[in-house]
Amino acid sequence: MEARHWREHLPAGSVFRVEDLTARRSLTAAWAEVWGANPSAPLIYDVGAGTEARWVTAGEFEERTRLAAARFVALGLQAGDRVLWSTGSSLDAVVANVGILRAGLVAVPANAAYTSRELGHIVTDVRPAAAVVDHPDRARWVTEAATSPLVVLSVDLQAVGGGGNQPTPATREDGSPRGRTLDASSPEDPALIAYTSGTTGAPKGAVLTHGNILANSESVALTWRWQSDDRLVHALPIFHGHGLCVALYTSLLRGSSVVLLPRFDADAVLDAAAAHRATLFFGVPTMYHRLAASLRVGELSRLRLAVSGSAPLAADLHRRIGELASTAVLERYGMTETLMTISNPYDGDRRPGTVGFGFPGVDVRLDGEEILVRGPTVFAGYFERPAATAEKMDDGWFHTGDLAQLEDGYVAIMGRSSDLIVSGGYNVYPVEVEDILLLHPSVAEVAVTGTPSDEWGEAVTAWVVPDGPPPTREDLAAFTADLLAPYKRPRLLHIVDALPRNAMGKVRRVDLH
Ligand code: MCA
Ligand code: AMP
Asked: For 190, what's the count of Cα atoms within 13 Å in the CB-facing half-sphere?
């Protein structure tokens, strides 16, 4: 059986060609055009840290991001240079990101909860020419890990003092600014390098081009009937594909408006939806779990569309929200390397327990049980790792590692071919956590698995064979505090006499439950 054809997503009577998804060449060029056409339109609601909350218009945002781009150019950065960008959600952070892209630089988003070890790996691997960070500790970690000169900036793009800051000349010898003109990137130029781990080894940078991120926003907007009068409550982290490419970039492309919240909180989301008459909300299943537990869950019904992704939305939770809020949550599927590839339909049946069928322009097929995808959102490859890229790509088809079955042409995700754990929408790689726990003096052997959890989807679980007195969960939490971001630390601990192993001596994680 085949998955349904992506044409079923198209509005009745519409004419669509796959090339249309990249016809505007780059998101930055398309953004500038959209904002220029309606400069007084409200674009981003800045909840303001210490300042008054207010709407920023498209015209003001265009100017601020143009100045941000000029700031990078004045620092001597040149098109193609990489800029690490690791920050929580704020208007300044968004301006910096968009400025990076408009200047033709490559943004490297990194989780703002990473420890110095996790951030240091990315810095060493990607060798950024500049970094934008929102905390002095991160500024120090980046500087310490850098192996080549770099400029460290705060989110408002002021140089952060201290050793290692080495701004490069701002101008050429003839006095003209370096770098190419604004919004001049081609579809094949890299726009983002997003770090994501394999099952073994350290995180790799997925290179997403301007064409990839433009095609993603165009197809998401088309499929979900996104209009300029839509208004999104944005409570996702901005350093992952979901919060950045799907939520933020697509809003900016449509010229619709965003209420940017600093973090997720069920009441804050529902308050913002009411106060600003929002039409859209995007979340991970853990957020829907918390919304469903709220007495105010019925308020979700005021939205035009609520979308879930990044991890499986339990069919039961989907149905419960349907009953409590008369809202059929639209579940979709994607990955850092491919952006959005599969979606339930906007018009038509949104089936609980399934992610739907290919976005317009994305071909989907099953190889055995594994999902393969092909289309204009599939990345250019892993940064400086051709062998790792070749392992995942086969004649344009990307091997997702996710396993699925087809139900009446809808893709139902059944699991993964790897041991990846998805907790609250964040990926956790057992090997990375095991390697860190093994450094603890009371841990002789360890295996890490995901335990099914209503709230988190999967809860990171450590199975420890102790060396001497067994460690407690608190011991391990304290030990990992400087080594693992909080979401990777074990929430459950089992002390065991031995780990199940196969004939080769390899731990059989599947037998641990
Ligand atoms: C926070 N904690 C977690 C997680 N998040 N533990 C496990 N898994 C998590 N995901 C820890 C906190 O550090 C804290 O630890 C404790 O849990 C409770 O914190 P709480 O305040 O309740 O949590 P929170 O800050 O409200 O965070 C929950 C969250 C967050 C809002 C669901 O995890 C989140 O924003 N997730 C979204 C991730 C995401 O955007 N993924 C997209 C990637 P302690 O008690 O020790 O202090 S995938 C992607 O982008 C692709 C393209 C796609 O398909 O979308
Ligand atoms: P990341 O590499 O962080 O982008 O995470 C991508 C992974 O998240 C995919 O390979 C899937 O395992 C998982 N994922 C994303 N969306 C869904 C979904 N709707 N249902 C199940 N898994 C999902």
From this structure: 21
Task: Name the range with the highest mean pLDDT among 175-189, 264-278, 427-441.
Answer: 264-278
In this prediction, residues 339-351 reach a mean pLDDT of: 98
Q: How far is the CA of 236 from the centre of ligand 1 (A)?
A: 9
Cα–Cα distances (Å) from 292 to 136, 268, 327, in that order, read 37, 14, 12
Residue 242 Cβ < 6 Å to ligand 1 = yes
DSSP per-residue letters across 442-467: TEEEEEEEEEEETTTEEEEEEEEEES
What's the pTM value of the predicted model, to 2 decimals? 0.94
Nearest CA to ligand 2 atom 16: 310
Helix (H, G, I), strand (E, B) or coil at 275: helix
For the chain, give the mean pLDDT.
94
Task: Report which residue type is found at 299.
Answer: E
Q: 99: Cβ below 6 Å to ligand 1?
A: no
Q: Which residues contact 54 (CB under 8 A, 6 or more apart)?
A: 45, 46, 48
10 Å Cβ neighbour count for 304?
A: 16
3-62 pLDDT, tens digit each: 999 999 999 999 999 999 999 999 999 999 999 999 999 999 998 777 789 999 999 999
Residues 314-338 have pLDDT tens digits of 999 999 999 999 999 999 999 999 9
CA 126, 132, 134, 137 dihedral sign is positive
Cα separation of 447 and 509, whole Å?
A: 7
Structure confidence at residue 218 (pLDDT):
98
- Ligand 1 mean position to 84 CA, how many Å? 21
Q: Tell me how far the alpha carbon of residue 338 lies from the centroid of ligand 2, in angstroms.
A: 11
Helix, strand, coil shares, percent, the chain, to 5: 30, 25, 40
Q: What is the pLDDT of residue 407?
A: 96
Q: Would you list the DSSP string of 209-246?
A: EHHHHHHHHHHHHHHTT--TT-EEEE-S-TTSHIIIII
CB of 333 within 6 A of ligand 2: the answer is yes
Structural domains of the chain, ranges and CATH numbers in brackets: 1-26+209-417 (3.40.50.12780), 421-511 (3.30.300.30)
Whole-number Å distance, alpha carbon 10 to ligand 2 midpoint, is 24
Among all ligands shown, which has an atom nearest to the Cα of 333?
Answer: 2
- Beta carbons of 330 and 354 less than 8 angstroms apart: no
